[in-house]
Amino acid sequence: MAITIKRCTLEDLIELQEISYVTFDQTFKNQNSPENMYTYLEKAFNIKQLEKELTTISSQFYFIYFQSKLAGYLKVNINEAQSEDMGDESLEVERIYIKSHYQKHGLGKKLLNKAMEIALELNKDKIWLGVWEKNENAIEFYRKMGFVQTGSHSFYMGDEEQVDIIMTKTLI
Hints:
Number of strands: 7
CATH topology: Aminopeptidase
CATH architecture: 3-Layer(aba) Sandwich
Order of helices and strands: EHHHEEEHEHEE
CATH superfamily: Gcn5-related N-acetyltransferase (GNAT)
Strand order of the largest sheet: 1-2-3-4-5-7-6
């Protein structure tokens, strides 16, 4: 089982957009209206937005490949790029998405371990993320990985307000 992780560059922009659309749609389409999904996908994953994120110095993207096939990706943020003000000692896992047919192969764990490795290299004390309160599988996965709920925040899917649980893991 060959698994590789590669940092994304601007040359990966189109591929990043494609996997962003696919993985987000697979994960959330059954719980959201088509209109709200479309609105969110067009806002969050348009080329200009992804290019801006890829060139933000405090953000990093990584692709994960399973048997040489692109299976998912990770986005981490530090400092001002974090979606919540969690301080300079924190690293945010903003996105960790795996295509549905590659789930249950340990890829999420590999990406989360990569995020923790980056956090430690950058001398961060904690790692945190927001996860939709209805995404029970993800919440359970993060608990198994040592994360605990430390708060919540609003997240808008189109015109619908939803709640993300903030989960944190202390590293040092």
